[in-house]
Amino acid sequence: MGYPSVYPTRTTIYYPEKCFNGYTVFPTVTEGVILIDMNGNVVRQFKGVHGFPSKILPGGYFMGSTGHRDFKYGYQDMIDLVQIDFDGNIVWRFNKYEIVKDGRKRGRWIARLHHDYQREGNPVGYYVPGMDPLVDRGNTLILCHKNLTNKKISEHPLLDDTIIEVTWDGDIIWEWTCSDHFEEMGFDEEAKNIIARDPNIIALSPFGGYPLYMGDWMHINSISTLGPNKWYDSGDERFHPDNIVWDGRQTNIIAITDKKTGKIVWQIGPDYNATPELRKMQWIIGQHHAHLIPKGLPGEGNILVYDNGGWGGYGAPNPCSSKGLNNALRDYSRVLEFNPVTLEVVWKYTAREAGFAPVVQDYKFYSGFISSAQRLPNGNTLVTEGSDGRIFEITPDYEIVWEYICPYLQKTLNLNMVYRAYRVPYEWVPQLETPKETEIPRSDNSDFWLMDYEKTKSKAVVNVKSGSKIKPITSEQLCVVPRNDD
Asked: Model pTM greater than 0.90?
């Protein structure tokens, strides 16, 4: 999407009485993990922690990783998963999934974690009343990578996805390997042929420029348990609380795996023309963070997903995909909440709900990769529009009541992306005093401009209606100035 070169950052909109107020945690591309209050003030920062994603547990504990594997040897592999206290001390670590030997380095244990994990006690990794994740015991569900070859899928080596469950002591007690269930996933022969030829091949360069090709064929990016839910309570065994919902962004699949058998017991995709219900929902493409809204939150039992659009899928070649890889494309995003039994969409958010013109401005809400959506206890939804570093809270009636633009820019790539953000209540971080909440009204963009004045090169905000000048400020500070105020 088009994006201005000068724009306000940090909190740009905030109506305290309409928000679920608390702290928001998110990873940055340059400054580690950041915790902010509602006014955008940084209240805690961990520069040495990578968030893929970053999460908070009650008591001011944080979870993340201390580093990632060199991309020459592994794609999106994190070294470990750690839990740290508010002071930055590591109180729990898991890294013993696989011993790797990268280049001339000695072999070492790493977790090969990527994209998601869940601590026992909470199914989804965000705040749910009465479902607190455990902080001093309990198992952890982790999404990992494994290199393997499965000739039923492709002759090419695969970068496969696995889900493991580890105890507090680090013992692996359960493992599920995605490629073992290829035949359950409903690919037609054309898609199978495309996957066999090109299972989304990525090139690593571990041998001094001689690439190693791996097929990131599924690219799972979220996992969570279903937790207690009304579907299981009514007798539908597919929704057992221990079962795991996951999504594969490369295949456009959202599925539920039976924890006991490993079988896939519920699925939508890869073909969204398969039934009238799916055709009405329309294609989900390149999605992230699909999960069942937990019991106790508005919309409980529905699936919430950030439907990125962008690119994904395997199938018939077309003018945008000459080989059939990433054959489904759409240049706008949707947040969808739908009933997993009837597949009825019960709530959605797109650029049209944001008030933009249909079709010609659909791109105004668009992140082709990363991103997420969290249901809040007040019925609002916290949305991470990740590629642009934009996080916002929106009401069921589509009013944006809080908005934050990430100011932490990776200047070489001009990138301020945010993988995923979470909101938690103030009481989860007892080390901090409850912050002051100051309203930041939505500004009317037509009422101001930036200009030089009074023989200086400084920037000033000028109110168009009154012509009055406000003190010189930087574009980074624009968010804290009431821009329509005389």
From this structure: yes
